[in-house]
Amino acid sequence: MSVVELAWEIPAQLGEGPVWVAAENAVYWVDIFSNQVHRYSLADGAKKTWTFDFGVTSLNPRGGGGFVGTIKDGFVAIDFDNLSVDPIQLPEADMPNNRFNDGKVDNSGRYWAGTMDIDQTGETGALYRLDPDLSVSKVDDDYIICNGPTFNLDYTIIYHTDSIKRIIYALDIGPAGELSNKRIFAQFTRDDEGVPDGMTVDSEDCIWVAQFGGARITRYSPAGEILQVLPLPALNITSCTFAGAELDTLYITSARTAMSESDLVMYPLAGSFFAFKPGVKGVATPLFAG
Q1: Are 114 and 102 in contact (CB under 8 A)?
Q2: Which has fewest Cβ within 10 Å: 116, 126, 205, 210?
Q3: What is the pLDDT of residues 143-196, one digit of tens each?
Q4: DSSP letter string over 35-90?
């Protein structure tokens, strides 16, 4: 798989948040605008879709089984058997113009997820941390669109994006999950780059950044230097994750939203789910400890 392969041709409106579930040998990913969660089996390519009454914006397996995730107002437990969610913490239930967006779990079993202004104009978004005791903390704020959290290999740095500002930040993580030393890791300056979206880390501590509107993923060194650019057959690339027994395949989500008719003609696979072997491995998905 030295070239990008089409794993699942599907017109996802806002495909997002792919997560490798080792216990099932499958990748789960969401379509936020279609209220759907998709499951792709690596063993046989089998595909399954669940449709909820609302958008699931991110999800992650739990150590005790099942899934935790985010919906518009906050963190929930997800039951795929009956298509239900149980609230865990809803820190933005009183903010109708905000919604939760992307999230990931660290090696301490803590779930980090950000929020965004639905109108994509106000700095009302924030970054939250859900701890294993199910308490929630706001750890950073003043985002327009919080996006793409990922971590360095030893989980002492969180990388986080404000897509509208076209900035990827790096913040140091303390022992209790406190953040400090917020700084710019990378910043997009050209229109053809699009905006930074979801991210993942590889086994060499490099960061792979999906580019919404940029039709590509870029690999950055820990120092923020561009190492590789992967062109893709979809305009709005939203996120990526390494998966498989060897963690050597990068699975990539995309979206059809915010595309013109001419864009859709140029990128007929917009919204689809792609796979690529980049020649480097990823890291295992940590389980939520709560």
Answers
A1: yes
A2: 205
A3: 999 999 999 999 999 999 999 999 999 999 999 999 999 999 999 999 999 999
A4: TEEEEEETTT--EEEEE-SS---EEEEBTTSSEEEE-SSSEEEEETTTTEEEEEE-
Given CA atoms 84, 87, 146, 242 in this order, what sign does their dihedral have? Answer: negative
Cα–Cα nearest to 7, from 243, 196, 195, 207:
243
Of the listed 197, 202, 205, 248, which one is catalytic?
197
What's phi and psi for 213, nearest 5 deg?
Answer: 85, 0
**Residue 284: Cβ-neighbour burial (10 angstroms; 0-12, 13-18, 19+):** exposed
Q: Tokens 């809803």 correspond to what residue?
A: 90
Helix (H, G, I), strand (E, B) or coil at 162: strand
Tokens of 51: 């449709």
197 is catalytic: yes
